[in-house]
């Protein structure tokens, strides 16, 4: 009797390892996805673009400036601190320098590892690979074999495409409530209103028991605010709702694949979903 293939809904922390895999965890994600039915959402694509694709744009700006690759890697911190592009990036997203450096180096290492002959690729080769990664390959790899790609949020930022202007890439990664470029109020206020209230009750219970993870405190604040007024989900408030949105978008027939189990598990459990860590899944198969 044939068994049904596993069904996974890809949360951002796991999905990124399909495009920019790290040793071990990338292998675990690949093992879970192999032969499985995969679901992802445009919201996850948006989160991926505003993190890894944007940080690949930072790396591209450094490489395109003409520095040899070893010098780029050696002087990355100082170069990033000096460049207006990074200062603009940091003010938009409030991300730490360490995380941006980590992502930039991870992307560079991944693209440089593509060399088949073991030689260090030239600066021009790395720049060409970065351009291909930014323009389409990153998202292509993220969504390879995914069906369906849901669009419950109607996220306008997910539709943005990096544009090369005057030698540097530009990408819109921030919106405001006034722009009205998503369907989050309808999604959370109507389509998933009952489940949103279940999440709210679960997070409040964790807070009362002093068990609410630190990373979910802002999520609880956002859920309380949006449950009272769904229109407030638009704009930057949606970033605090990311784990909730991704869990709500996941089909009931799929389990959520995530490296962020501490945050996803209580939300998923509240609405009848299950979240799993890919390394735990692979370990259980081997055991």
If you had to describe this structure to a student in words, what would you say it looks like?
This protein is α/β, with parallel strands linked by helices and about 290 residues long. It has one domain. Helix content is about 60%, strand content about 10%. It starts with 6 loop residues before the first strand and ends with a helix. About 35% of the residues are buried.
Can I get a quick summary?
This protein has helices spanning 12-19, 25-33, 42-64, 69-74, 76-82, 84-93, 97-112, 123-142, 184-191, 193-208, 217-228, 237-240, 242-249, 261-270, 278-286; strands spanning 7-10, 37-41, 146-150, 163-165, 168-170, 255-257, 275-276. The strands form two sheets. A five-stranded parallel sheet has the order 3-2-1-6-7. A two-stranded antiparallel ribbon has the order 4-5. The chain has one domain.
Write the layout of secondary structure elements.
Layout (H helix, E strand, L loop, with lengths): L6 E4 L1 H8 L5 H9 L3 E5 H23 L4 H6 L1 H7 L1 H10 L3 H16 L10 H20 L3 E5 L12 E3 L2 E3 L13 H8 L1 H16 L8 H12 L8 H4 L1 H8 L5 E3 L3 H10 L4 E2 L1 H9 L1
Parallel strand pairs: 1-2, 1-6, 2-3, 6-7
Antiparallel strand pairs: 4-5
Helix pairs in contact: 1-2, 1-8, 2-15, 3-7, 3-8, 7-8, 10-11, 10-14, 13-14
Query: What is the gyration radius calculated from CA atoms?
Result: 20 Å
Structural class: alpha/beta
- The quaternary organization reads as single chain
User: What portion of the residues fall into strands of 2 or more residues?
Assistant: 5-15%
Question: How does the overall form come out from the CA principal axes?
Answer: globular
Cross-sheet strand order for the largest sheet: 3-2-1-6-7
Percent of residues in helical segments? 55-70%
Largest sheet: 5 strands, parallel
What separation lies between the terminal Cα atoms? 23 Å
Q: Can you count the beta strands?
A: 7
Overall residue-averaged pLDDT value: 89
**Unreliable residue runs:** 88-93
Order of helices and strands: EHHEHHHHHHEEEHHHHHEHEH
Query: Helical element count?
Result: 15
Q: What's the structural domain tally?
A: 1
């Amino acid at each position: 009797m044939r068994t049904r293939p596993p069904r996974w809904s890809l949360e951002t922390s796991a999905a990124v390892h399909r495009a920019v895999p790290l040793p071990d965890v990338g292998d675990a994600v690949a093992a879970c996805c192999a032969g499985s039915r995969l679901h992802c959402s445009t919201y996850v694509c948006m989160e991926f673009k505003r993190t890894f694709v944007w940080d690949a744009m930072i790396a591209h700006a450094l490489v395109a400036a003409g520095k040899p690759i070893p010098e780029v890697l050696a002087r990355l911190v100082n170069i990033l601190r000096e460049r207006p592009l990074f200062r603009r990036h940091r003010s938009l997203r409030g991300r730490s320098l360490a995380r941006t450096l980590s992502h930039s180096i991870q992307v560079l290492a991944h693209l440089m590892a593509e060399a088949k002959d073991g030689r260090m690729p030239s600066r021009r080769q790395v720049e060409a690979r970065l351009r291909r990664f930014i323009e389409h390959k990153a998202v292509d790899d993220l969504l390879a074999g995914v069906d369906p790609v849901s669009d419950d949020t109607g996220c306008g930022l997910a539709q943005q495409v990096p544009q090369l202007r005057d030698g540097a890439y530009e990408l819109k990664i921030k919106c405001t409530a006034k722009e009205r470029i998503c369907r989050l109020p309808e999604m959370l206020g109507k389509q998933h209103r009952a489940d949103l209230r279940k999440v709210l009750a679960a997070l409040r219970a964790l807070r009362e028991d002093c068990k609410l993870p630190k990373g979910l405190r802002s999520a609880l604040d956002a859920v309380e605010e949006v449950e009272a007024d769904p229109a407030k989900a638009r704009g930057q408030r949606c970033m605090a709702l990311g784990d909730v949105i991704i869990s709500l978008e996941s089909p009931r027939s799929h389990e959520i694949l995530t490296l962020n189990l501490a945050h996803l598990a209580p939300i998923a459990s509240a609405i009848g979903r299950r979240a799993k860590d890919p390394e735990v899944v692979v370990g259980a198969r081997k055991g």
